[in-house]
Write a structure and sequence with these properties.
The complex is a heterodimer of chains A (117) and B (112). Chain A has 117 residues and is mostly beta strands. Chain A has a single domain, classed as Immunoglobulins (Immunoglobulin-like, Sandwich), CATH 2.60.40. In chain A, 0% of the residues lie in helices and 47% in strands. In chain A, strands 2, 4, 5, 6, 9, 10 and 11 form a seven-stranded mixed beta sheet that branches. Chain B has a single domain, classed as Immunoglobulins (Immunoglobulin-like), CATH 2.60.40.10. Chain B contains no helices and eleven strands. In chain B, the strands form two sheets. In chain B, strands 2, 4, 5, 9, 10 and 11 form a six-stranded mixed beta sheet that branches. In chain B, strands 1-3-8-7-6 form a five-stranded antiparallel beta sheet, with no helix packed on it. The radius of gyration of chain B is 13 Å and the shape is globular. The chains are: A mainly beta (117), B mainly beta (112). The interface between A and B is medium-sized, with 27 and 28 residues.
């Protein structure tokens, strides 16, 4: 694919429902990131994968949030028992890890806007 | 928590004018990156500056970095209406270079 894609683009959930958000990174990209972006704010880091390994999940706000990338490509962010404060745009980004990893830039998907009623 | 703080929060200029946005941060970094976000869309990478660099150019963009003051600036010259967007700085750190911390952004409006 040409870029990072995310689905669904919009999701409305009733409080207490579980949701699953999907990210398809750019083919061949090793690194994958999830961010949460509140209205009028910058993205906040949630978690980071290198291939299928979740190397950093320090940004996940609670144990209701769970992310996986079982085959090192597509990733799913799952939120259990959604709360109103979970309403935000969830952004996925991928990057091609090079030997000089600090030069990596991220390619972002369009995001999933989650509204919890 | 967000490390970077952009200044100003909002900026409105006329086409053809220059736009300057500033970013301050708190801890040591590997590099600093600037991104643009159009309304309702994902972020687009603009430019990266390493911690050992002081200035970098890319087309109409000029970025400076002062690690002693922990600050960076983004200058857009000869602005166009299409430059209207939110601009974010992101500091990068961490063992894997995975720790991207974004500021709250500057909302730039370029009036035709």
């Amino acid at each position: 694919g040409a870029g990072v894609s995310q689905s669904p683009r919009y999701k409305v959930a009733k409080r207490g429902q579980d949701v699953a958000l999907r990210c398809d990174p750019i083919s061949g990209h090793v690194s994958l990131f999830w961010y949460q972006q509140a209205l009028g704010q910058g993205p906040e880091f949630l978690t980071y994968f290198q291939n299928e390994a979740q190397l950093d999940k320090s940004g996940l706000p609670s144990d209701r949030f769970f992310a996986e990338r079982p085959e090192g490509s597509v990733s799913t962010l799952k939120i259990q028992r959604t709360q109103q404060e979970d309403s935000a745009v969830y952004l996925c980004a991928s990057s091609l890890r090079r030997t000089a990893i600090y030069t990596d830039t991220q390619y972002f998907g369009p995001g999933t806007r989650l509204t919890v009623l | 928590s967000q490390q970077g703080e952009e200044d100003p929060q909002a900026l409105s200029i006329q086409e053809g004018e220059n736009a300057t946005m500033n970013c301050s941060y708190k801890t040591s970094i590997n590099n600093l990156q600037w991104y643009r976000q159009n309304s309702g869309r994902g972020l687009v990478h603009l430019i990266l500056i390493r911690s050992n660099e002081r200035e970098k150019h890319s087309g109409r963009l000029r970025v400076t970095l002062d690690t002693s003051k922990k600050s960076s600036s983004l200058l857009i010259t000869a602005s166009r209406a299409a430059d209207t967007a939110s601009y974010f700085c992101a500091t990068v750190s961490g063992v894997y270079g995975q720790n991207f911390v974004f500021g709250p952004g500057t909302r730039l409006s370029v009036l035709p």
